[in-house]
Amino acid sequence: MVKYDAAINKCFPEREYFFPGGHGGICSSTAVSANFRKIWIAAGLKRDGKVKSRAYDFRHHFACSNIMRWSAEGKNIHAMLPYLMKYMGHTGIESTYYYIHLIPDFFPIYNELASSTEELIPEVESYEI
């Protein structure tokens, strides 16, 4: 990434975005997808027709891998998510929490985490209307 940053800085020295578009603005998702396909094909990687790899898959893998690693290291996931949120460019923590529900292996860990916070929410009495 350091090499990329130095190289792209020569083309767009006043750039606002790490991955700028053709005229220095934001790189569109269409451009990212098109370039990803070109690189995938140029690398000689196959497509099986059923599942198409996408650039987004790398982002998803990055988020999920970090969450699982933090869990394995015994770190407080709730305390770490704001760091992941900022790193990924999310404007709200809800976007980052999205990744947790996509990790099947994380469900038992999540249940354990959730049970540790149960006492924070008081029991609500049931009343008939």
From TrEMBL:
It comes from the Bacteria. The keyword Repressor does not apply. InterPro entries: DNA_brk_join_enz, Integrase-like_cat_sf. The keyword Lipoprotein does not apply. GO terms for molecular function: DNA binding. GO terms for biological process: DNA integration; DNA recombination. Keywords: DNA recombination. Gene3D superfamilies: Intergrase catalytic core. This is Tyr recombinase domain-containing protein.
